[in-house]
């Protein structure tokens, strides 16, 4: 949009008229949004919005975390950090993405049948911090930015001693115990990994070795 923006993307499974009724508080014209759009998205185009973040040559040393609750003070702090980093030339496309998802279906599976325990799957909020730029000289600033955001989320938006991190965007230094729900599960997955993928072929997205 050319300037710092808060974008709210609402989902509804059903007709457009019902969706607008269900989300009428968020779509209230008195909120004076820059734009409002309600469209039917075909199932095979649901992820088209991700394309903008998949630019060849971009650097995106992001982090991700599952949080239990929202904290207004925390998000004001994070907003300020995002504005500060985004002022760097070439970093204007950096984003912070937060999603809220129903976990009802995923919780039907037992812990033994899934990679992630109920401890992780029961959390409905997912946060992804994605600094985006091409200049390698910004690597240190980007790491500092994402680390500060992670610390704020860990301190103010989850229970003490219960960090839950999402594998695809955890950064390079998140302990595996925080990702898979404990040391026992980590050792189990490492054993499977060594047996089924000793060459780490499937490590391009998340390097579990």
Automatic annotation (TrEMBL):
Q: Which Gene3D superfamilies match?
A: 3.40.462.20
Q: What is the name of this protein?
A: Berberine/berberine-like domain-containing protein
Q: Which organism is it from?
A: Arthrobotrys flagrans
